[in-house]
């Protein structure tokens, strides 16, 4: 009943990139992600002293709208300029602002919905890059309901702390491999089919959970690390798709990629700890639950995953 109201990754970050062309001219790209099937509520308001030298262009992409500006900054330096994103405060979307200078240096800043404005500063240190991409990775996994449902299904299937640690480690290793390979351009898989198969992987685990609850043989219960590793490779392509939307700073690619992955793991561990404690607490409640209650998680996860699969297949076939 609730699957129609659930969407995965509606908190994909926006991207604002400012690239210096020469001493006074800059290209401004504003990628506004589609927000719950509609144009993003936020708009871009440039400083008053930035004069547009060409008409603004707009392109409709599959998952976003791309706005391109060319501006002249009279003072020559954009440091201290304030950019506004009115409407961002009504969303849950972060925006990654990247400034690329003519000498090859760059600066990254995360703009939060709670403060939809940013003051442009000079190039930031590697520590700031590490922090920004760690935050992006953590927020991405915590807003990625599909990935979290996959992890939750594993938690409900796997028995024993040691086995659970091995299983989660296998999932982590696998998606780290494909995240790095896809982000660095070593492998390429089209995004829409990957997202559909990710939904299918969650549906598979839901069916495996039903088998476990019924006392039937289950591939995942017998070889959880193998299933987690196999599907982890697939989920890594999903993470790479999100990272490719905001890009990597050219002079800090290894660091940004590493810290994005670290952020993903931090968010994943936070979710696992919370769910583990909830499951343990429910097991300690001395109440004889009806048998159908134990099947609710499997049917809930499976129903949502089935909706996503159909929605995503229709999306890339249209």
Cα distance, first to last residue?
Answer: 25 Å
Q: Helical proportion?
A: 40-55%
Q: Give me the strand/helix succession.
A: EEEEEEEEEHHHHHHHH
Specify the number of helices.
8
Give the averaged pLDDT, no decimals. Answer: 86
User: Can you tell me the overall shape?
Assistant: elongated
> If you compute it from the alpha carbons, what radius of gyration comes out, rounded to the nearest whole angstrom?
22 Å
Strand content: 15-25%
Q: Give the tally of β-strands.
A: 9
Weakly predicted, low-confidence segments: 1-9
Q: Main sheet? A: 7 strands, mixed
Q: What structural category characterises the helix and strand content?
A: alpha+beta
Describe the structure.
The protein is of the alpha+beta class and 318 residues long. It is 50% helix and 16% strand. Strands 1, 2, 3, 4, 5, 7 and 8 form a 7-stranded mixed β-sheet that branches. Strands 6-9 form a two-stranded antiparallel sheet. Strand 7 (95-100) and strand 8 form a beta hairpin.
In short:
The chain is an alpha+beta fold and 318 residues long.
Present the secondary structure layout.
Elements lengths: L13 E7 L4 E9 L16 E3 L4 E4 L3 E10 L8 E3 L10 E6 L5 E6 L5 E3 L6 H18 L1 H13 L3 H23 L7 H23 L5 H4 L1 H23 L6 H32 L11 H22 L1
Parallel strand pairs: 1-7
Antiparallel strand pairs: 1-2, 2-5, 3-5, 4-5, 6-9, 7-8
Helix pairs in contact: 1-7, 2-4, 2-7, 3-6, 3-7, 4-6, 4-8
